[in-house]
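Feature request disguised as a bug report, sorry. It would help if multi-protein outputs had a clear separator. Right now it looks like this:
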Amino acid sequence: MTSPFEALLPSTERALLHRVAVAQSEGRAPSLVGAVARDGRPVWSGARSCTEEDAPDADTQYRIGSLTKTFTAVLVLRLRDEGLLDLNDPLDKYLPGTGVGEATIAQLLSHSAGLAAESPAPWWERPPGSLRPELADVLGERPVVHPAGRRHHYSNTGYTLLGSLIEAVRGKPWEEVLRCELLEPLGMRRTSCDPQQPHASGWAVHPWADALMSEPAQDLGLMAPAGQLWSTAADLCRFAGFLVEGDERVLGPGSVREMRTASAPAEAGDWDSTYGLGLQIVRRNGRTLIGHTGSLPGFVACLWADAEEGVAAVVLANATSGPLPAAAAADLVHIVVEAEPRFPEPWRPMPVVDEALLELTGAWYWGTSAFGLKLVAECGVELYPLSGNGRGSRFRAGQNGTWTGLDGYFAGETLRVVRRPDGGLIHLDLGSFVFTRDPYDPAAEVPGGVDEGGWRGLSS
């Protein structure tokens, strides 16, 4: 069946272009590009510019700043998946002598290692990276500002260390590893460490006048893994599709889901924003979005994806401040999802029905709380509260007839079927919780036992 999303409706396209036009005008950006992808395919792009003869398109390069960090995180996860490191390993195991080697790789990825946000003065984004030829120059005399693992504290120096970690384990420059292991397999030919024509120039816009000043575009040296890259809206739409679906040539679906899972506590009062492994996780317009923002002098960028809806948006602009790409990109996703909701997959019967599993389906009781258990093709079984309130999880078949929780309260916990010697079903044991066919079934091993008097009315 042909996808209904190969092209957007004209009314949707006009709404998207209007949002881009507002972002460029109100943000006073010399130029701004927006693009949308659905189910991994680009479906729209639009741009606005202060000069008609220099109008950009989805193939125009912009600097993407800290969006680079997500690329670096993917390369680290690749090393983990190959068995070359463990995310719980201390940095010192692979990169000794930094002075912050007790921080784990996972903590560095999630910005919870307690490292300082920035390198010592001067501000690293405008001078050339050659000012900091060694990691000691990047870290400075006070590289740690918080206890490791206690809070989320965004750190550019942490991702500098991750870039050096990649080089130490691979024995190759970070840029070469990035190109060979990520950019080329995903077909991102317009993403690079140095600008390639056609590319936008970086500008600062005067805060109190409609005047411009050129911004420098420096090579960041050792800090490149934290913010060096140039890319296009089209390439970043491809990258967004990868972050939603995964790609076995780069990183499988399970590992990209791991990247999208919150790994760091939210800052106090900021419950709509947290961080995974190299990915920001935010709530916008009632939706959960994953991706990253980025900025360097002269440029701002954002990529957001709604993994549940399969819609992603990219916004790139060439101004140091003013445009709000995070808000604009979130609105582009919202416009498409609201105007053209995705079609649900057709219902189809399971290819094979296991009679032994079918016996487990139906109502179960934890004490007096009613739960339903059903078979689901994509993972195995799902246990859920029938009242809508309570703890539920999906389970995947494990060893020796057991099941392992995939999400919710019982994630990682073991579900076990308890039977009589003749094979008859007695109850389910889930992490010591006993689920019975009837509330407090006396035939089951209910913790604390069951009153021999059974159920009764209120006697006079």
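(second protein starts here, but nothing in the output says so)
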Amino acid sequence: MLTRFFAAPVFIAVIAIAMGTGIDALVKGVAPNAGLHHLLAWRFLFGGIIAFAVFKAKRRPAPKAEAIRFHTIRGLLQLFCAFTFFYALTQLRLAEATALGFTAALMVAPVARIVIGEKISPVAVAAALIGFLGVLLAVTGSGAGNDLADGKNRTLGLIALFSSTIGYAFVLVFLRMRATKEDATTIAMFTNVVPAIALLPITFGFFGFPVLASLPVFLALGAAGYSVWFLMTLAYAKAPAQQLAPIEYTALIWSAVLGLIFFDEWPGWQLWAGAVIIITSCMIVAFEGRFRTRRQAGLPASDIPE
């Protein structure tokens, strides 16, 4: 039973999101000094090295031309999302950026309907809307009592953030399209290698080599970034996109804790009230997916393999 729980797609997604929030906090802390261009390029380079090594070690078959074209487009879109979101992190509070970033989850179900024809569950839609209300409430208390530091541009940060969320909704649906055809190792490899190939010539050509002291941080970001996408690929291969999308809301809790510890960002009561609503919506979707499977299979929930 315990093994089944840890192998469940919802649990895998929660772990991946917690790690992703840790990456966001690290980016927010080091990007101003290390340089966003260096951070992105070297994060993807180290992630690509790790991902390619795992790909070769597992002796995965060489991808076909059609897969390479698909993953190149998806990788470039992933790079755009990473750049805009990382920039937003440098301009906004961590909890605020995380909360507003949840709008991507609200777009996943309609994007999945348009792109891959995935049916939208009314319960999933209702739960996502409930979660969005929780996000709205949480944003009002995301940084109560704190003003943004000098040099921050909130407007540009918000524009970058919402640009990232729109692209991220498509990235998640594209991930779902390939997760049922290819293994997580291959997808994670492309996710890191494509952005690295695109960024490194620009970085070396215009910005040179980074400070050596920053390389361990970039390595940590690369390893964590690879792990997040590997776990998310596993999760999306086992469950519909609309079932996992609201689980993204749990990042709000992690961002509030990390923002408080490392950046002295004190969330108001609204954030915690919103977090309760968000978690409730996640549970609704998770349990609804399980019981819907039970109805389709004609079996008791306890008889359905995880």
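Even a blank line would do. Unrelated, but nice: Residues 94 and 259 are 6 Å apart (CA to CA).
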